[in-house]
Every structure is written in structure tokens, then in C-alpha cells.
UniProtKB/TrEMBL annotation:
It comes from the Bacteria. This is Glycosyltransferase WbsX. One of its GO terms (molecular function) is transferase activity. Keywords: Transferase. InterPro entries: WbsX.
Length: 369
């Protein structure tokens, strides 16, 4: 009986210990997102570009006012003197270049003319060569409607030819002395590259590179992937096709509160995984793309989605700058900002009457020695 009591007590002690251990469970310290974003010192300048937005007018819900005054660019004709001021402010921020949209002259002729006019305005205002410029080819279903996974571009010889011709038309820009080069190659962004549906994307890009080489240019091609998508989703569209990949800004159009509460950490984890995957599997560099702020309410006043607001210190944007530094390619050190002047979503880096040059100063401090 005595022996039984000893065994019974031992069993109770072991059971209590096991229960106690289970009850303790995981803690907040175990969470993968439980860490601080540290300040990354700049020992070498980063190469920073900003997407330049073309827009028709000012939404009545826009509360911010540009320091240069409200301006317009109907058909690409920007208000006199504004482009020169934009260049001067961008230089203050340490920006290396603006990235301008260009659309297909064959599929979207009016917008192509507007895009060309705006780029020409930059070239004319940049006579002293204060900064560089690059082009972003807007491949989308509006200009190449009907192209899909079941109807690849190769099935339409006319559109296939027009796709190549679009790049032929920009060759003079790519040879401009103030065009942005990466490793000696003109950088060309391809927006919505994940929708370039083809039976063999590598063959498409190989042909494009061959043609461009014949036209005297060896490009550095950068494909865009839509926001918050896993890196393996578009292997057929990117592997052995592009030199680098960037995501649509993860800090814009936030519609998930879980991501919003720890935005810098969730972006950091997404980029770390994506960068590693792209480098190992696609042999492509990664380009972090950050946004100064974002508001749903300008276009949708009743929106209940999370806002990414500005602050007196710009603290959240500063954290995102550090996340970008942590995930930039060690080879190219490229970083993008979306955008320079997208006022219709409050994404602009451009100075405003309310926050002045705060965001320009943050960019220079975060990315330049």
C-alpha cells in the first residue's frame, strides 16, 4: 500500500508539471513579428527613384496643397515652371531619377502622346542634367485586352509585333545622356508584367532583348508583381525573363488590419522571403518600393479600410525606409518610392504647405551619406 501511494504521488506530480507547462503556452516573445525596426546606418548611397504620376485634375477631397501650388497636366502639358521646381525639390531629397509612364502608341495612342509630352517637359526642364529619368511601360489589359492564360499573346501576331514596336519607339530616350543606367544598362520598368500572358515568356523576353540589342541598347528590365502575392506565383512570367522585380507598394491600399498594426514588420518579412526566393530561383534582383502615406478617403470618403496617415515626424515612413534598406540588393542598391506626386491618393513625396519638406529630408537622411 505504501508503495502504491508513492507511485500515485509521483504520477500526480508529473501530471501537474505537464499541465503547468501546457498552460504556459506560447508567448508574445515567440511571435515572428515581435521585433523592432532598427535604424540602418548609410555607409554607401542608395540609388533612389520615384514614380512620377500624370493626373488630370484635383479631387475636391484632397486636403493637401503643393508648395508649388496646384497644377495640371492636360494631355501631358504641365503647368509652366512646375517641372523645374519638381526637379529642384527631388535633388534636395537626393532622388536619382523620376520614372515616367509610357503606354502603347499602337494600342493607346492618346495616352502615349500625353506620356511623351510629359517626358519631353522633363527633358527640357532638366537642361543642366540635375537628375536622371527612366520609363515605365504600362502593360495592362486595357491596351492589350483579350490576352489571357488561355489566349496568350503569341496567338495574335499583330499584338505581338506591336509589343516589340512599343519598345522600338523609346530607343532614342534610352540613349539620352540623362537616362538612368544600372550597371551601364538603361533601366526599363514593366508595370503589370505578371499579366504578360505567354506560352513562353522567356522566349518573349529573349526576342525583346535581341531586338533591342540590334537597336543599340542592352536593357535592364524590371517586372512588377502585384502587391502581397507570393513570389512563386508568377514563375512562368519572370524566371529567366527580367533582371529585377518589384511589388506594387505594400504600404498603399491596405485593406487588412492585421497587416496594418505591424506594417513595417509584415512588409519586412514579405520582402525578405521574396528577395531570397527571386535571387535563388529567378536569378533576379529585388527592388523595395515604399510609399510616404496613403488615404482611401480621397476617392472613397466612406471607406473603413486602414489609413496610412502622415505625422509631424514621419516616423512610420522612416521605419519603412529602414525596411527598404534591409532588403535592397547589395549589387544595385536600388529603391523606389511610389510616388513623387500622386496627390489623388495622398501618396506624394512632393512638399506640401502642411508638412513642408519633411519627407524630402527623411529620404535624404535615410538613403544618402
Amino acid at each position: 500500500m505504501k508503495r502504491f501511494n508513492i507511485f500515485y504521488i509521483a504520477a500526480v506530480v508529473l501530471l501537474f508539471g505537464a499541465c503547468k507547462k501546457d498552460l504556459s503556452g506560447p508567448s508574445v516573445d515567440d511571435n515572428i513579428l515581435n521585433y523592432d525596426i532598427k535604424e540602418i546606418p548609410v555607409t554607401q548611397d542608395y540609388v533612389v527613384g520615384a514614380f512620377y504620376t500624370s493626373f488630370g485634375g484635383w479631387n475636391a477631397n484632397i486636403k493637401e496643397v503643393p508648395v508649388v501650388g496646384t497644377y495640371s497636366m492636360p494631355n501631358g502639358v504641365i503647368t509652366a515652371g512646375v517641372m523645374g521646381k519638381h526637379i529642384d525639390y527631388a535633388v534636395k531629397a537626393g532622388l536619382n531619377y523620376f520614372a515616367f509612364s509610357f503606354r502603347s502608341p499602337n494600342r493607346d495612342a492618346n495616352n502615349y502622346k500625353s506620356d511623351s509630352t510629359l517626358v519631353r517637359a522633363f527633358i527640357n526642364a532638366n537642361g543642366e542634367g540635375k537628375m536622371k529619368f527612366a520609363l515605365t511601360y504600362n502593360f495592362n489589359t486595357n491596351t492589350f485586352g483579350g490576352i489571357s492564360a488561355t489566349n496568350p499573346i503569341e496567338k495574335d501576331k499583330l499584338r505581338m509585333g506591336q509589343f516589340y514596336e512599343d519598345f522600338h519607339r523609346i530607343i532614342p530616350y534610352l540613349k539620352d545622356p540623362n537616362y538612368m543606367l544600372v550597371d551601364g544598362k538603361p533601366i526599363v520598368y514593366i508595370m503589370n508584367a505578371q499579366t504578360l500572358f505567354s506560352d513562353n515568356n522567356k522566349a518573349i523576353y529573349d526576342s525583346l532583348r535581341g531586338l533591342m540589342k540590334g537597336w543599340g541598347v542592352t536593357p535592364y528590365l524590371v517586372g512588377m508583381q502585384d502587391r502581397w502575392t507570393p513570389p512563386a506565383r508568377y514563375e512562368l512570367r519572370f524566371k529567366d525573363c527580367v533582371d529585377a522585380i518589384y511589388h506594387q507598394s505594400l504600404s498603399s491600399q491596405i485593406n487588412n488590419w492585421d497587416r496594418w498594426y505591424l506594417l513595417p514588420q509584415t512588409i519586412d518579412q514579405n520582402w525578405k522571403y521574396s528577395k531570397d526566393y527571386f535571387e535563388k530561383n529567378f536569378r533576379a534582383d529585388y527592388i523595395p518600393n515604399i510609399t510616404p502615406a496613403y488615404s482611401w478617403k480621397i476617392n472613397t470618403p466612406t471607406s473603413t479600410n486602414p489609413e496610412y496617415p502622415r505625422s509631424d515626424s514621419g516616423a512610420l515612413f522612416s521605419k519603412l525606409c529602414n525596411v527598404a534598406k534591409m532588403n535592397a540588393s547589395s549589387k544595385t542598391r536600388l529603391i523606389m518610392i511610389d510616388s513623387w506626386n500622386n496627390w489623388v491618393e495622398d501618396m506624394q513625396l512632393e512638399p506640401s504647405a502642411s508638412y513642408g519638406e519633411l519627407y524630402l529630408n527623411i529620404v535624404r537622411k535615410q538613403f544618402k551619406k
